[in-house]
Amino acid sequence: MPTLAQNLGATSLAPFPQETSGVMRLLEKSGWLRDLGEGQLTVLARHLGAYRALKGGVIFREGAREPFLCVVSAGKVAILKEDSSHAKQGLVTLGPGKVFGALSLVDGEPRSATVTALEDSVLLVLTRAGFEKLSDDFPRLALQLLMRITRTVSQKLRQTSGILVEHLKK
Asked: What angle in degrees, to the nearest 10, is found between the helix axes of 139-169 and 128-137?
């Protein structure tokens, strides 16, 4: 039977077993959802999985279709994009408290980039199934999470637009 990491298409991820309280501590440490109360964090922690990605491991590849979001709890990851010659170009490095993979959770489209671990990292993973269960059982919390995801994606789009404008000036 395949592991959850294999089902995610992320063979470089290994389960990092945690009780709900441990996942909650990792979530608190990340700071990504600092506006949620302890009860909400506890509920959300039950819908997340904790995984370890070893340095150099691929978390997911550009074009992969598995819908899950990751919150970096510890370590650093690199977001890489293939250029027209199929060479990987580094876009950004993300550390604790940063989120990646949000678009696939929302739209289910193929991954737009590859993500690799720059150092041993701990990631909190929310799958589409986990988000759907959260939505069914705790719709208000799921809406708060979706609003946070939307703000995160919006901030990234604004940053990208600014970079594009500067690039077009050249």
From this structure: 130
Please say whether the beta carbons of 15 and 3 come within 8 A: yes
Pick from 149, 146, 124: nearest CA to 135: 146
Show pLDDT as tens, one digit a residue, over the chain (170 residues): 334 455 555 557 888 877 888 888 888 888 888 888 889 999 999 999 999 999 999 999 999 988 999 999 999 999 999 888 888 888 899 999 999 999 888 898 999 999 999 999 999 999 999 999 999 999 999 999 999 889 888 888 888 887 778 778 87
CB-based contacts of 60, cutoff 8 Å, min separation 6: 8, 9, 10, 66, 101, 111, 114, 115
Q: Of all helices (H) and strands (E), which one includes residue 115? A: strand 114-117
Three-state SS at 56: coil
Report helix, strand or coil for 155.
helix
Please report the domains of the chain, with CATH numbers, ordered by start residue: 4-169 (2.60.120.10)
What pTM did the predictor assign?
0.85
